[in-house]
Amino acid sequence: MTRLTTLIIFLLAFLHAVQAAVPPGPQARFASPVPEPSLEFVENRGQWDARARYMAELPAGRLFLTTTGFTYTLADAAALRAAHEHTPEATVTRLRSHAYSVTFEGGNSHATIQGGQPTGEVRNYYLGNDPSHWASQVPGFREATYTNVYPGIGVRLYENANQHLEYDFTVAPGAKPSRIRLRYQGPERVELTEGVLRIHTSVGEVVEQAPQAWQEGPDGQRHLISCHYELQNGVVGFRLGAYDARKPLVIDPTVVFSSYTGSKADNWGFTATYDAQGNMYSGGVAFGPGFPTSLGAFDQSFSAAMDMAIIKYNTTVKGSAARLYATYLGGEAADAPHSLVVNGSDQLVILGSTSSLTYPVSQTAYDRSFNGGVAIDPLSSGVNGVTRYANGSDLVISILNSQGNALVASTYLGGSGNDGLTLNPGIVNNYGDAFRGDIITDGANNVYLASTTQSADFPATSGGQSIRQGAADAVVAKLSANLSTVLWSTLLGGSAVETACSIQLSTDQRVYVAGSSTSTDFPTTTGAFLTANPGGTNGFVARFPTTANTLQAATLLGTSANDLAYFVQLDGSNNVYVLGQTQGQYPLTSGLYGVAGGNSLFRSSPPT
Known about the structure:
Layout: E1 5-6, E2 41-43, E3 54-58, E4 61-66, E5 69-75, H1 77-85, E6 94-104, E7 112-127, E8 135-150, E9 153-159, E10 165-171, E11 182-185, E12 189-193, E13 196-201, E14 204-208, E15 212-216, E16 222-225, E17 227-232, E18 235-240, E19 249-252, E20 254-256, E21 267-274, E22 280-287, E23 296-301, E24 306-314, E25 322-330, E26 335-342, E27 348-354, E28 394-400, E29 407-413, E30 438-441, E31 447-453, E32 473-479, E33 486-492, E34 498-505, E35 510-517, E36 538-545, E37 553-557, E38 563-570, E39 576-582, E40 601-604
Parallel strand pairs: 7-25
Antiparallel strand pairs: 1-39, 2-3, 2-8, 3-4, 4-5, 5-6, 6-11, 6-23, 7-8, 8-9, 9-10, 10-19, 10-20, 11-18, 12-13, 13-14, 14-20, 15-16, 15-19, 17-18, 21-22, 22-24, 24-25, 26-27, 27-28, 28-29, 30-31, 31-32, 32-33, 34-35, 35-36, 36-37, 38-39, 39-40
């Protein structure tokens, strides 16, 4: 991979600040802040298998709560880490996983489960093309409580001060703790060593620390009761010392995922935007295993578990950022967001790519069916990596309402080849370049996008370039506000490779697009700043009217070495600014800052 000198602009959002008041005096010390709880029990409102009532993200896995007990689904943490870092070990299509259950043997098979301590934020799920399995305004809770698992005995799950999963058996006066019998099904083995329960799986070890038990005295203090595990034939019970059966009793094992590291539900950031109220939106992909179809070791597809994850934050509160909602969007295969923008109706418009045949689309969508392509992994040289697009790729455009709880409109856009992913050497020079592309809206909420296609039959409208000229062409399109109509679209390119990365609208109703080209015959226009390719890869800027796909002006930007254009912006006078990379000696404007061999920022007047 060629290293290019780069101009980088950082935008840092400080999402949380902790202030602590320290009493004066020579003995004052700064205490470490107590970590914020991270474990959340999310209610199932149809988005998951009906057996699961609640789900909690775990390190490299998930915990599902059913009426009869707990089901753990854990993935190979080392493989997830390697996939995130794109090491050679990551080039596999299947991810080793393991599931096991803990059931309340002899317990109430219809025990009720209730969430407690709501987090105040909601999640929305648009997964698959069956609206009956979409769910909105789904709450999350810091704890979940079972009632009457056994007569007079309940269970409360929560995250303790050490950020470990803890589940307490609450035993009412007169109830019999000897009834508690936990059957483990699916682990490779369960063993009891030095008072600690060890659950061995094919992807790591889970430890349940020695249990504690206590009763509360009249002084309000906890009085510990001797408590130990008993294990026989995969069934765990508790052996208690003397206690007062007339008083409530609590037994609390703690679960430690000792072999697992990393975030809960591995996720990678891709794009971000903001709205008129100052709220921030982030778009990324999230890995999340589903409810297991069988217990024990199993494999699952990396790409089948990669969905878009959209989060909206309120950043207007000083020193903090509240998560207003999280929305998941995708189908049965890989889905990724490329660009976000908020339109004039306070709706979030998403440009992305998908390999899913079941991506959620609206009834009036321009295109409700996946169009095809060839298997590819945009982040590896083959087709077997973590971001594998097993079915090829299509562009997708989706619109969410301001609460994220309604899919306003959604459509596929593409041809029979791969669309939306930049896959060609010479243009892919940085990590994540494959996912470039841009989306913007006008005053009527019409949608404009810039991307790329390898399809010979991309749906270009008449009047522009309708035939792909090289291996890949740039794409520029305008869609109606409800995504039911392509108002106009065009390819843009020469006999080699082009991609469009950025798009802007001017105050005089023109569309400006920036991207990169390796063609020697890119269609520049008369009077352009640079009409011929001086060598290698060049950036380009092109202009169209908002009303049609007629190319009004186009110029190359570059030197005899490699040059790429990534972002285009306009000022109040519609002057054009381009941000990109150069490996050559790009000419600097006299009197402006510049370092030989350093970075370059391009500015031009509007093309005529």
